[in-house]
Amino acid sequence: MTFLSSPGRAFLLPGLALLWAAGSAHAAPSPAEEVEALAAQVVALSLEADPTIAYFTGLTPPTHGRFADHSPKALRALERQEDALLTRLNAIDAKALPGPSLTTHAILREMLEAGRGLRICHSEQWSLSHMFGWQLQFPEIAEKQPIETADLRAQALQRWRSVPRYVDTEIAQLRTGLSRGYSVPKSVVRRVIQQLDGLLAAQAEASAFYSPAKRSEDPAFQKAFASVITTQIHPALKKYRQFLDKTYLPKARDSLGLSALPNGKACYAAYLRFYTTLDRSPQEVFDLGRQTVEKNVAEVQSLGQKTFGTSGFAEIISRLKTDPANRFTSEDEVFTYSRALVERAREASANSFLKMPSQPIEVRPYPDYMKGSGVSSHYEFEPDPKKPARYMLQLDDWKELLRSDAAVTALHEAWPGHHMQIATASAAAQTDIARLAFNSAYAEGWARYAEALSEELGLYDSDAAKMARRAWPARGMVADPGLHLYGWTREQVTAYAKETGRFNQAVAEELADRIAVMPGQLTAYDSGGLEFRALRTQAEAALGPRFDLRQFHQVVLENGTIPLLQLRANVEAWIQSQQPH
Predict the structure, then answer these.
(1) Helix or strand holding residue 379 (H, E)
(2) Which residues contact 449 (CB under 8 A, 6 or more apart)?
(3) C-beta pairs of 253-256 under 8 Å, 24+ apart in sequence
(4) Is the peptide bond before 416 cis (omega within 30 degrees of 0)?
(5) How far apart are the C-alpha atoms of 189 and 252, rounded to whole Å?
(6) What distance in Å separates the CA atoms of residue 517 and residue 374, rounded to the nearest whole number?
(7) Alpha helices (runs of H) in 230-376, residue ranges in sequence order
(8) SS3 326
(9) What does the UniProt keyword field contain (predicted)?
(10) What are the beta bridge partners of residue 362?
(11) What is the rounded distance in angstroms from the CA atom of residue 268 to the CA atom of residue 475?
(12) Radius of gyration of the chain from Cα atoms?
């Protein structure tokens, strides 16, 4: 993936702490009632902080007329309210909670504790990213901006006229960061500049921001919105680009790792907690990753001996890369192959789940402004179940792409991977907090588990794909902390990625910059994937012939995206319930 999110921003909470009125004539709330009330407060305050969250979660925003406020004053206010909510949550006896409320409690605790832990990073002062930066998020928001009524159109104009103020705040934060020793790598700055150039290349009516006007039948609004693009948005983009090119880039760091920043080691540990929902040290993640890579390499060697008559890992990878049958002949063939596999995967998955979500998914190529910017193929959720979600396919390097890797990625992103999990969670969500909750370890962990499940379902059409799905996993658990804490260079990361056969030099460089700007996130895939696999193995061993794969999948998917420790608690409770009494 994949599924992109910005750490530390989506769930910052503003404004009012939840307080039960002293001396109320009503009975004191039960622990379950207080948890649910806290959850409602978290949702309301999160949407108040950033109304655009609603477009990606299916929630209702308080307004369509503004963006988030990332000024120091606003962020400090958010932090105070996070602390008030966490204090309130910690006063609740979790042991007194029934199952659904216990899950809600776990979600709230993880969101609030992980968010507080990230404060040591001061990430708002180096919030510059080619992976999840505002310059990528805003075109998506434009596509979702509602314009059906006169009032909604007025709110749309109000929001997009505020882009210059938003950009000024971002520039001010970045200036502060530079003065305090915070910056992102120069290579990341250059990638963002390239994206800005792509956005600025189009005229107003061809702009990535023009969607609200394009969808409207109001000529006056169309004219006004086009004017906003030319007189407000584009000048703000140019100002931001000039700042990055002339001021920021010369002062940005050359190194990639967080160890170059103030409190870098503690910051990295906080990012690990944020992305994995586990209290594992960087060293524990690094060691587990190396052990898992060794196991995967041994399995590739066994398959290679069977398929190619050699057990040399490098020779096996070389054979995969040079086999003409493992290559595409055109960009269109990649697209057609991926779309056909996604359709076939849905049919093949049906017997492994109690219920398949009805929401479709479509395969789309990247828009022009994102081409060549280093963003990998990924899944984009659509909160409206009547509209298809999207598997966004990066085709920049299609000549280098292997069919085996294309298969693994498509199954990871669509069925039975991200789309299966996220569409199921969306359809089953009974609470707003369930719609708001997200963590990479669960989402990416399920998708990694789905890669292996796809092999069980017979979805890989060659042994090459079976080898490809084992060659890369768990290396993120090694390369990510290696780069940020253990002195790995860009060259070491790219070499480590390239030896799997999944990355050419350009894509390996993209991976290094991705790790640099999303510290800890690449460890989430296999931190989660190993947990899903371990829980299934535990359930199979405990239940024997009573084990039902469809029921297991229902148990792990039915509560949506939850912290891994709560996932384990839920599965173990289910195992106990299936035991004869």
Answers:
(1) strand 378-380
(2) 528, 529, 532, 533, 536
(3) 253/183, 253/184, 253/185, 253/186, 254/185, 254/186, 255/185, 256/185, 256/187, 256/483, 256/484, 256/490, 256/493, 256/512, 256/513, 256/515, 256/516
(4) yes
(5) 8
(6) 12
(7) 234-242, 249-251, 264-276, 282-308, 313-322, 331-349
(8) helix
(9) Signal
(10) 390
(11) 17
(12) 24
With contact defined as beta carbons under 8 Å apart, do 392 and 378 qualify? yes
What pLDDT is attached to residue 23?
36
Q: Can you give the length of the chain in residues? A: 581
Rounded distance between C-alpha atoms, residue 558 and residue 429, angstroms? 8
Measured between alpha carbons, how far is residue 502 from residues 44, 296, 377, 505 in Å?
43, 15, 13, 10
398's tokens: 């299609």
pLDDT tens by residue, 484-495: 999 999 999 999
Q: Burial code of 396-428, b = ≥16 C-beta within 10 A, e = fewer?
A: bebeebbbbbbbbbbbbbbbbbbbbbbbbbbee
Residue with tokens 């902390």: 481
Residues whose CB is less than 8 angstroms from the CB of residue 56 and which lie 6 or more positions away in sequence, other chains included: 381, 383
* Cα separation, 516 vs 509, whole angstroms: 11
What is the value of pTM for the model shown? 0.92
- φ/ψ of residue 364, rounded to 5: -130, 145
For residue 28, how many other CB atoms are within 10 A of its CB? 8
C-beta of residue 108 within 8 angstroms of C-beta of residue 43: no
Q: Which of 482, 560, 492 is nearest to 522 (CA)?
A: 482
Closest residue by Cα to residue 12 from 92, 104, 86, 90: 86
